[in-house]
Design a protein that fits this description.
Layout (H helix, E strand, L loop, with lengths): L2 E6 L4 E4 L5 H7 L17 E6 L2 E2 L10 H5 L2 E3 L4 E2 L3 E4 L12 E14 L2 E7 L13 E5 L5 E5 L10 E6 L5 H8 L6 E8 L12 E6 L3 H13 L6 E7 L8 H10 L3 E7 L11 E2 L2 H8 L7 E6 L1 H15 L6 E5 L9
Helix pairs in contact: 6-7
Bound molecules: flavin-adenine dinucleotide and FE2/S2 (inorganic) cluster.
Flavin-adenine dinucleotide binds next to strand 11, strand 12 and helix 3.
């Protein structure tokens, strides 16, 4: 028998089947709950149970601690209803009516802007278009049934090809294939768009954008969308990488800065060698933001890439720089092995 769920403060209600996660049921009802990994790792879907009981399912114990469970918190992507519920969660505005589709696409072109980064340009069938918000991701559906998530690097206005930036993870089933076996013209299948990492256009706050490695992909989509829309909010973009060569679209980010007075690009390198002759900022990318900003209370932060970077930014900005918790937006690139089975 299904349970009745009420969301607060919106007052929205939906039916939830005991075998579906609360996130699945909310999405089926057309409601827009914040989420990222859908796997109990990133914490984007964390909410508070006001009344009722849930079964928490599988999740990472660092993402939802025993103390948080005791305080009524849950992860909606893993939680199943046991009774009628009232849940406190801040719903997302925007992106709500975009259909999630499963589509074929053709690999039009593969570029390698760095030794370990491939850029895929994917072409949809002539009769299809993918509606999406800049910054969302898609799941590539592999032939063996595995799914791998990749952020869309193009903005919606520039949709002749869907663009993915894929870092080579040695031993990784999909990225190894991209680097060793994938040929142009082959057909892939994907499901999307997914996720709630996109520009909050109803705000006029200045933005800090942070990418580590291929976390640049959704940031690229967001920036290109914002610039196309004539957004005049201040944007400060920090791109962190181990070495300068890992900043694989450095010139593009520099061009955004040269052409837009409200855009600043700050590359940050953690392991430059003497041969690199790197004269720019060094260290961890979140630390560069901490060094530059004493107070983030009036900002929005968009962070994407390695989970360790996203988590360091989240914790330090909220705890030491007064960033409001609900002004931190992120997609952490968890590997499938880090997620629940
Ligand atoms: C929302 C989201 C968006 C993402 N966007 C991007 C993006 O834009 N660009 C990008 O590059 N990545 C992105 N990722 C990461 C991406 O989805 C993949 O996880 C990544 O590409 C690795 O996939 P793979 O199939 O190559 O490796 P996998 O097969 O998942 O293997 C990864 C590593 O784990 C090892 N491994 C596999 N199984 C086990 C095991 N059981 N025990 C121990 N080790 C194991 C492998 O040898 C390998 O080293 C995103 C992730 C998420 C969640
Ligand atoms: S923990 Fe639920 S979406 Fe990531």
């Amino acid at each position: 028998m299904s349970c009745q769920v009420k969301l607060t403060p919106s007052g929205h209600e939906f039916n939830a089947k005991p075998e579906d996660t609360l996130l699945e049921s909310a999405m089926q009802a057309g409601l827009n709950i914040p989420y990222g990994c859908r796997n109990g790792a990133c914490g984007a879907c964390k909410a508070t149970i006001v009344t009722g009981e849930v079964r928490h399912g599988d999740f990472q114990s660092t993402t939802l601690t025993a103390d948080e469970i005791a305080a009524g918190k849950t992860l909606l992507c893993c939680a199943y209803p046991e009774t009628d519920l009232t849940i406190e969660v801040k719903e997302v505005t925007g992106g709500k009516d975009i259909p999630v589709k499963t589509l074929p696409c053709r690999v039009h072109k593969i570029e390698k802007p760095a030794d370990d980064v491939a850029v895929l340009y994917l072409k949809l069938p002539a009769s299809e278009r993918l509606q999406f918000m800049a910054g969302q991701y898609i799941d590539i559906l592999m032939k063996d049934g595995k799914r791998r998530s990749f952020s869309l690097a193009n903005a919606p206005h520039d949709d002749e090809f869907l663009q993915l930036h894929i870092r080579h993870v040695p031993g990784g089933s999909f990225s190894d294939y991209v680097f060793t076996g994938m040929k142009e013209k082959e057909i892939l299948r994907f499901n999307g768009p997914l996720g709630t990492f996109f520009l909050r256009e109803d705000s006029d706050k200045p933005m800090i954008l942070i990418a580590s490695g291929t976390g640049f992909a959704p940031i690229k989509g967001i920036v290109e969308h914002a610039l196309k829309e004539g957004c005049d909010r201040q944007m400060v973009f920090y791109w962190g990488a181990r070495q300068p060569k890992d900043l694989y679209m450095f010139d593009l980010a520099l061009k955004w800065q040269q052409e837009n007075p409200n855009f600043t690009f700050i590359p940050v390198v953690s392991d430059a060698t003497a041969d690199d002759n790197w004269a720019g900022r060094t260290g961890f990318v979140h630390q560069a933001v901490l060094d530059d900003f004493a107070d983030l209370s009036g900002y929005q932060v968009y962070a994407c890439g390695a989970p360790v970077v996203v988590e360091a930014a989240h914790n330090s900005f909220i705890q030491t720089r007064n960033l409001p918790e609900d002004e931190f937006y992120s997609d952490a690139f968890f590997l499938a092995k880090d997620l629940k089975p």
